[in-house]
Amino acid sequence: MSGNPIVVLTALDVEYESVRTKLDKPRLYRHPQGTRFEVGRLAHGRARIALGLVGKGNQSAAVLAERAINEFSPAALLFAGVAGALHSDIALGDVVVATHIYAFHGGTSEDDGFKSRPRVWEVSHGADQVARHVARNRAWADELDDQEPTVHFGPIAAGEIVLNSTTSPHAHWIRQNYNDARAIEMEGAGVAQAAHLNRSLPVVVIRGVSDHADGTKETTDREHWQARAVANAAAFTTALAETLSAEEPQQREPADPKGTPMMSDTIRNVAKDNARVVVQAGHVHGGIRVSGEHGPPTDPATAIAELALRLRQARTAGHLDEDTYRAAEAELAAARETLQTTDPQDVGAVTLALKKVRGLVGDVAALSAEVASVIALVQGLS
């Protein structure tokens, strides 16, 4: 995995708080559009987590998952929460890890009934392998007070309703068309779709079983099974995040069919003295950046120093309040220190610090745009 954080999303406040308690001094991160995340490292671990609350439903989950992906460029996206079990062999408090996500509400209504037209997303092979390794290791459950839950792998059905019956039309529909689904919930399809649209970002949906979707939900809630299911899901999720963060990246030069290493996708042409460089390429894919001697700084450390000056000017002009200024200044200081002390340079950590600055100064359009340009400059180091 890269040095970028792992995004963990939840739907309910109780789920959010259960993951948050595992973070060491989480810091507020404000998205320019108002969404609030908290970012911190796992206590006694190395994983950096960007934690967000999406609320109920696949639609809001998809929108905020997309927002988190664009903002943090995460190494992986995990969703932690509760679900109703659909099979009797799954006990209350057990954990279900999705191998597939069914969006089961898709279909067409015809004269002879409703015909299913589901969408399905499959978890990536690599993420599935890591999740199974965490489950086999069993150390993830050491901190739990209760007996160690069983981890089940299988499809999860995601719709727009809370299923709490075994005899309703919806229950019959699920049994008839998705009888291999292990659990049912309301956000997994939205998260999976957002990840799919972002170059198949690794996504894992982890659910603690709080009921059996059989009409006993109020009873199981009174017996505190929701709290236990939340704790179990959070424990597995953070153990998975830690393991994903520990994975070493394997980078290799792409090869042609004959096995010969091919040219890198990035071409840098550097001109010295009075020389000029134009684009030297037959076909150009992606963006082109041309910088001159008298243009914006091309050294990240210099660019961050100039950004700090702009920050002070914005405070003096009254565009930033003192608390926002000090928080942004601290993030810039952390970015500068990381550039100076890490070898190789931890581009992910510097980028995250700068994105926090962008979130803090989002109301000042010119300053936010300048931060974005510095982020692009830093990302060019990788």
TrEMBL record:
InterPro entries with a match to the protein in the record: Nucleoside_phosphorylase_d (IPR000845), Nucleoside_phosphorylase_sf (IPR035994)
Domain of life: Bacteria
Chain positions covered by the region annotation Disordered: 242-265
GO BP of this protein: L-methionine salvage from S-adenosylmethionine; nucleoside metabolic process
Top enzyme class: hydrolase
Entry's EC annotation: 3.6.1.55
Keywords: Hydrolase
Boundaries of every Nucleoside phosphorylase domain copy: 5-240
Protein name: 8-oxo-dGTP diphosphatase
Source species of the chain: Actinomadura livida
